[in-house]
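Re: that backbone. Tokens:
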């Protein structure tokens, strides 16, 4: 239970940071074509700055709430928490990049035109939620086929498993399993929620 609470708090803090600090930057990664190398490099720089801000926010939140409890509320403990967040983010980015390069180009599986202003409020909310969930889990190929979003989901699963290597929960099999499964679920849910918020705001 302590492991689950710790990772839920970490993921929520990171998700909030990503949504508030730069939801537009995260949203830009859904584009399947980037014509100008300079624009692509600028986007990458903004994205990495956002990831760093999210990692620091989550680490600071965990430091304030002393989670996980095995890491003391000292500078050493804060460093461990920052390292955990940065390590997870870096691993996820590397895995996502590698998986994306290994697959054919894809696009979001669901069109979200019904989310735009002018539609009834609850219709927009429902459409945005559906878009956030579907486009997190599924992608569309150029031929129109729909496939699991392997680059994103594989990166989250892989990074969650790798991050157990430096977490204190690794000492106990049960706690380690709970940590990994909880981080996968919460990060995936946070990604879907962030996607829904971006769609509702009109990116």
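Recovered sequence:
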């Amino acid at each position: 239970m302590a492991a689950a609470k710790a990772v839920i708090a970490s993921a929520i803090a990171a998700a909030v940071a990503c949504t508030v600090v730069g939801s537009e930057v995260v949203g830009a990664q859904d584009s399947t074509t980037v014509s100008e190398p300079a624009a692509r490099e600028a986007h990458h720089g903004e994205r990495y700055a956002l990831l760093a801000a999210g990692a620091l926010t989550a680490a600071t939140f965990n430091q304030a709430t002393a989670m996980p409890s095995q890491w003391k509320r000292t500078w050493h403990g804060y460093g461990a928490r920052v390292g955990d967040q940065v390590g997870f983010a870096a691993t996820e980015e590397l895995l996502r990049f590698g998986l994306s390069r290994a697959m054919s180009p894809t696009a979001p599986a669901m069109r979200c035109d019904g989310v735009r202003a002018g539609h009834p409020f609850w219709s927009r909310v429902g459409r945005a939620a559906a878009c956030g969930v579907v486009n997190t889990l599924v992608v569309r190929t150029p031929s129109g086929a729909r496939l699991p979003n392997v680059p994103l989901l594989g990166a989250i699963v892989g990074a969650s498993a790798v991050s157990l290597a430096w977490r204190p929960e690794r000492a106990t099999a049960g706690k380690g399993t709970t940590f990994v499964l909880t981080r996968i679920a919460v990060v995936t849910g946070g990604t879907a929620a962030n996607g829904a918020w971006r769609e509702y705001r009109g990116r």
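The two ends are 36 Å apart (CA to CA). DSSP finds six helices and three strands in the chain.
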